[in-house]
């Protein structure tokens, strides 16, 4: 029983951990060099909450009618495929825009007439995310 009381408190403390370097930066004026550890701690807190809530019976996937097995394995794989299509395409779009946008800004600073040509490459990177979203809709609704 004590486990059900302490684990949510630990998870909340882990979720609040990224605020420590922010507060330290405000009070001392120094930037946080090791903030990644606090962000990983918050991620761990989220994972811990995702484990606690179903175990404690706070969240239930079953409806009140008792339809616990409503999703088949095929439905679950369909949702997993849609999530992977969207997520991985958005990661690819982020990489593409992350590489194209600084080059576009540099090109525009040297020659302002190159704005239209530079924007085309940035928009092409964003198109990857839209294609992934379209594929996930095709997976879900067919």
What are the main properties of this structure?
77% helix; 0% strand; mainly alpha; 142 residues; flat
Structural class: mainly alpha
Q: Radius of gyration, rounded?
A: 22 Å
Q: Look at the structure and give the CATH class of the largest domain.
A: Mainly Alpha
Which whole number gives the mean pLDDT?
79
At the fourth CATH level, what is the homologous superfamily of the largest domain?
A: F1F0 ATP synthase subunit C
The beta-strand count equals 0
Q: Can you name the CATH architecture of the largest domain? A: Up-down Bundle
Overall morphology? flat
Transmembrane segments: 6-24, 36-59, 79-106, 118-141
Membrane topology: Multi-pass membrane protein
Protein name: ATPase
Keywords: Membrane, Transmembrane, Transmembrane helix
Architecture blueprint of SSEs:
Elements: H1 2-15, H2 19-28, H3 35-56, H4 73-110, H5 115-140
Membrane topology: Multi-pass membrane protein
Subcellular location: Membrane
Organism: Massiliimalia timonensis
């Amino acid at each position: 029983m004590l486990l059900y009381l302490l684990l949510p408190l630990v998870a909340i403390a882990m979720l609040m951990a990224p605020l420590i370097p922010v507060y330290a930066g405000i009070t001392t004026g120094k930037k946080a060099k090791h903030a990644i550890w606090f962000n990983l701690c918050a991620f761990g807190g989220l994972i811990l909450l995702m484990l606690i809530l179903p175990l404690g019976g706070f969240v239930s996937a079953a409806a009140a009618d008792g339809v616990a097995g409503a999703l088949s394995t095929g439905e679950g794989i369909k949702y997993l495929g849609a999530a992977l299509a969207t997520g991985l395409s958005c990661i690819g779009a982020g990489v593409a825009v992350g590489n194209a946008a600084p080059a576009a800004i540099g090109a525009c600073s040297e020659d302002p007439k190159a704005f239209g040509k530079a924007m085309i490459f940035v928009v092409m990177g964003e198109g990857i995310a839209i294609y992934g979203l379209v594929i996930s809709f095709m997976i879900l609704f067919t």
